[in-house]
Amino acid sequence: MPGAHVAGVVARTAREARLVTMDSTLDATEATAPAPAAAPSDAVAAVLTGAVDQARQAIVEHSGDTVGEYLGVSFEDETAATHRFLANMPGYQGWQWAVVVAAYPGADHATVSEVVLVPGPTALLAPAWVPWEERIQPGDLSPGDLLAPAKEDPRLAPGYTATGDPLIDDTAYEVGFGRRQVLSALGRDETAQRWHDSDHGPGSPMARATKRVCRDCGFMVPLAGALGAMFGVCCNEMSADAHVVDFEYGCGAHSDTPQPPGSGSPLYDPYDDGVLDVVEVAATEAPAEEAPETPQAIETETPAEEAPEVPEAPESPEAADDAETVEEA
To answer: Region Disordered: what ranges (predicted)?
Structure first.
């Protein structure tokens, strides 16, 4: 970075403060809207606007040949104006050189007040600064890192103060010593709400997909203290192993899940089709298909007593003569 990025680094005048505010270099919470500046007289304005070459030379003297295209001039008040140039510097794409010049009424030339490198509308800027303790997120802690709790963390309470948890308070009283800090009532409530709303709470997709809950599961070990009324640790390696689960959480690996029906054994012995020999069989004529047998009609026998009597027809004389002829033959 060149040695003279900023000439007059410290903001000494209200003009620079307004310039920096206009270019969004101050934090929005600290910036205040400047009062409308009075316009310079025509004579002073001519002197201020005519100092373009003087402003360019001031940049060259402080930063070398880094001056780009001239971008224009704006008036700060009745005696000052700012000339802007595009900055040609590696790593400062979109930045601008701002040169503040001043002239009093009746002056025949302007005076350079300050040269500042400021970001332009298209400049790449760093994100807003966030305090370190606010940047740390769950999961950021790595092996070897040290993370101290916030000063006067409301989630913690001194160990000698009653926490409201009978098990902790009674045990500390009986033993005679305790931890320097213990979980406060606020910290316990926030923890319970966070666990209840997590992926191992009753509202998770896994819990909604089953009717069995962890409250009566043999793989769940309840926690000690007040949190043990709602939470436990799962000890099933096929499910939420080593995770804190809500009593109303559930999964398909519940200890009371019934066995599937059937023995599970195959009907036939398995075989390895990789050891089979494939043999080509010569094509043969297929035997003619036999016509399917026509099922015989089933005759229905009518009982004799129920069958109607059919009267015999009288025998004609011609038929009787024919019968006698046949017998004689």
So the answer is: 188-207, 281-329
